[in-house]
Amino acid sequence: MPWQSKDDGDGAGGGKSPWGGGGDGSRSGPRNPWGEPPRGPEDRPKGGPADFDDFIRRSQERLRGLGGGGNNGGGSSSGRPALPNLPWGLIAGGLVLAALALTSAYRVDAGERAVVTRFGQFHQTVGPGFHLKLPTPIDGVTKVRFEDIRTTLIGTAEGDSENLMITGDGNVITIAYAVRWRLKNAEQYLFQVADQDGTVRDATESAMREMIARATLNNAIGPERAAIAEQVRERVQEILDSYGAGVLVQGVDINRADPPTAVDEAFKDVSAAQQDAQQFLNQARAYAEQVSAQAAGATAAFDKVYEEYRLAPVVTRKRMYLETMEEVLGKVDKTVIDGPNVQTYLPLPEVQRRAQANARAAEETRR
How far is it, in rounded angstroms, from Cα 144 to Cα 116? Predict the structure, then answer.
């Protein structure tokens, strides 16, 4: 070809390219039209500030290229506008500040408490309102519903399952109850016990079994249920306070206290007999009170008569005699007249009977 040189015969391969390179493979001159030899991985310098500056320059050019612009900012061959040279450092700083602000402010609603932890340890407890803290992950916030009344049911009142307990007199009952509680210390509630609901349930069941074991069957299913429930509430509060659970027990309600299903019919018969016995006792007491009241009234009347008798003995004695005779002879078919020149006995009822008999006989004769 016209740009090849002839061999001078020494076997050195004197052919040269039009760019001035020697045919012997030496790298003394440029080997491409742009004036610098091609570089392979083994020819690139290792490390140094020039590599880092070159990397920054190429990164900036790629960012500008994402907007479609050239190096001169006047547009590109595709016709799209160039990306303006924005202050990326300020933008990044603003984003960091915004993230810090969003993680440093928080609000606590009414009825809530917020427990703030710093590096995982308790720092403080705050109430409702708007608050500030150190940014995450330095400070963390956990909100809890502080004033809500929570109810834990133990056993069922519908009778589909039995929660059996032994009374103090050796009987067995099935019982269902509920405990109402709320928080009184948010820090203790979150960090002192692992399972708050389970702790309240276990403490209530333990206290209930303890109090039922001290009561008789009649008291457990009868009028002592309210007193037993109050004793259980006090005992549960003592247990939870000893644990430091941060819980306030509002009350315990016994919804069901019955004998087991296997002996329910027999127990109903016994209960009916007890109710009948109680009814008869009540009737006897009512009769006794009635008789006592009548006796008290008779005694009061006698005392009044005695006072009158002391003032006029003769008159009172005669009046008492007449009243007594009237009461005795009031139902006798005789008339007694006490007075001078008067027949002492006049059989008026007998005369009336005879007259009526004669009238009936005459009526039958006419027929």
Answer: 11
How is 108-170 classified by DSSP, letter by letter?
A: E-TTEEEEEEETTEEEEEE-SEEEE-PPTTTEEEEEEE-S--EEEEES-TTSSS--EEE-TTS
Instruction: Considering only the C-alpha atoms of the chain, give the largest distance between any 2 of them, rounded to a whole number of Å.
Output: 207
Looking at the structure, tell me whether residues 111 and 178 fall in a common domain: no
Check residue 262 and report its DSSP letter: G
Rounded Cα distance, 193 and 51, in Å: 58
Residue 137 preceded by cis peptide, ω within 30:
yes
Among 219, 236, 259, give the residue marking a domain's end.
Answer: 259
Radius of gyration of the chain from Cα atoms? 58
Measured between alpha carbons, how far is 215 from 30 in angstroms, rounded to an integer?
A: 110
φ, ψ for residue 93 (rounded to 5)? -65, -40
> Which of 212, 234, 259 is the C-terminal boundary of a domain?
259
Domain count, the chain: 4
Range of the domain at 176: 150-259
Amino acid in position 150: R
CB 113 within 8 A of CB 89: no
Are 247 and 293 members of one domain?
Answer: no
Convert 271-305 to b/e letters by CB count within 10 Å (16 or more is b).
eeeeeeeeeeeeeeeeeeeeeeeeeeeeeeeeeee
Per residue in 238-265, pLDDT (tens digit) is 999 999 999 999 999 998 888 887 777 7
Task: Kindly report the pTM of this predicted structure.
Answer: 0.49
What is the torsion angle, in degrees rounded to the nearest 10, for the CA atoms of residue 260, residue 265, residue 267 and residue 273?
A: 170
Q: Are residues 253 and 312 in the same domain?
A: no
**Chain segment 211-237, per-residue pLDDT in tens:** 999 998 888 888 888 899 999 999 999
Give the helix/strand (H/E) hosting 182.
Answer: strand 172-183
Residue 223: inside a domain, yes or no?
Answer: yes
